[in-house]
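Subject: for your reference before the review

Hello V.,

The reviewers asked for a structural picture of the protein, and I figured it would be easier to keep everything in one thread rather than splitting it across files. Below is the amino acid sequence we used in the manuscript, unchanged from the supplementary table.
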Amino acid sequence: MSVSFEGVGQVCATFLGGGLTEGQVVKMTGSGTVGACAADDAFCGVALCCKDDACTVQVGGFVSAKYTGTAPGVGWAALAADGKGGVKTAGEGGVMCLVAQVDTTAKTATIML
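And here is what came back from the structure prediction:
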């Protein structure tokens, strides 16, 4: 039996935001606008579909994100943007997320936003 979190609680919204890549974490950069995160930024979601100057962003529910550095532990964890489109374990000031699954081979974490 396999475990799947795909689509559970998924909440998405379309924002303005050019130059973004699907799968990268994003932050609010203006009214109705998202952009790329720098290292240690708090992120608001993960870009799912980017076309022209618009981007559909998952802002709630379970989503998979690339991570760098030490793998986050399962359970509640503070995460921050790594500046490369993914996340990393953060100290104080990170975004509190529920880490449900970690794949150390693919370097991904399934988190609940």
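For the response letter, the relevant points are probably these. The chain has a mean pLDDT of 95. The longest strand covers residues 95-103.

Happy to draft the paragraph if you're swamped.

O.
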